[in-house]
Amino acid sequence: AALFMESARKGSIVSRANSIGSTSASSVPNTDDEDSDYHQEPYKESYKDRRRRAHTQAEQKRRDAIKKGYDDLQAIVPTCEQQDFSICSQKLSKAIVLQKTIDYIQFLHKEKKKQEEEVSTLRKDVMALKIMKVNYEQIVKAHQDNPNEGKDQVSDEVKFNVFQGIMDSLFQSFNASISVTSFQELSACVFSWIEEHCKPQALRDIVIGVLHQLKSQLY
């Protein structure tokens, strides 16, 4: 009986120990599973972080576009090429690039205006040449239609003789009527000479006299 009671007591102690161990094991948290869940869960970015990141990317994009614009200006504008070897190692500032670009654009505007004026002048010359061409073609055509029409035409020498005769006659009266004592007297004599010797009837008589004289010399 004593052995049975001792065996029962030991069994009760073992049973209680197992029960306590089971309870303790169930009450201890599973740290391995929680660590695994913590590492697998993705980091949730806040709205403020996303906004900051988008602003940073937009700002960098804007700076890259501005830098590319200045680089393109330096490549396009000839005056942005550095001619001074003392500053060859220095990069042109943005202000200098903009000023050189403005100067070059103003130079191009002046050149454009100059070329437009030259084109306008050339167009006028072309128009005058076209008119002369038409006139000469008409003269040639008229001569071809009437080949004997120009035989009785006077020469340039005869025309000059007519002009010279008229001018000689006028100069004779002018020289006889004009006084050169003073400029005031000269001016008064010129107007008097015009009113007296340059009347239509007086000029007509001079021309008729010159023509009669040349006609008698030619025939």
TrEMBL record:
SMART domains: HLH. GO terms for molecular function: DNA-binding transcription factor activity, RNA polymerase II-specific; protein dimerization activity; RNA polymerase II cis-regulatory region sequence-specific DNA binding; RNA polymerase II-specific DNA-binding transcription factor binding. Residues 50-108 form the BHLH domain. Residues 105-132 form a coiled coil. Its main location: cytoplasm. It comes from the Eukaryota. It is found in: Cytoplasm; Nucleus. One of its GO terms (cellular component) is cytoplasm. It holds the Pfam family HLH. Keywords: Activator, Coiled coil, Cytoplasm, DNA-binding, Nucleus, Phosphoprotein, Repressor, Transcription, Transcription regulation. The keyword Membrane does not apply. Residues 1-65 are annotated as: Disordered. Residues 37-48, 56-65 have a biased composition (Basic and acidic residues). Residues 15-30 have a biased composition (Polar residues). One of its GO terms (biological process) is positive regulation of transcription by RNA polymerase II. Signal peptide: none annotated. PROSITE patterns: BHLH. Transcription regulator. Forms a sequence-specific DNA-binding protein complex with MAD1, MAD4, MNT, WBSCR14 and MLXIP which recognizes the core sequence 5'-CACGTG-3'. The TCFL4-MAD1, TCFL4-MAD4, TCFL4-WBSCR14 complexes are transcriptional repressors. Plays a role in transcriptional activation of glycolytic target genes. Involved in glucose-responsive gene regulation. Efficient DNA binding requires dimerization with another bHLH protein. Binds DNA as a heterodimer with MAD1, MAD4, MNT, WBSCR14 and MLXIP. Can also bind DNA as a homodimer. PANTHER family: BASIC HELIX-LOOP-HELIX ZIP TRANSCRIPTION FACTOR (PTHR15741), MAX-LIKE PROTEIN X (PTHR15741:SF25). This is Max-like protein X. The lineage of its organism: Eukaryota, Metazoa, Chordata, Craniata, Vertebrata. The gene is Mlx.
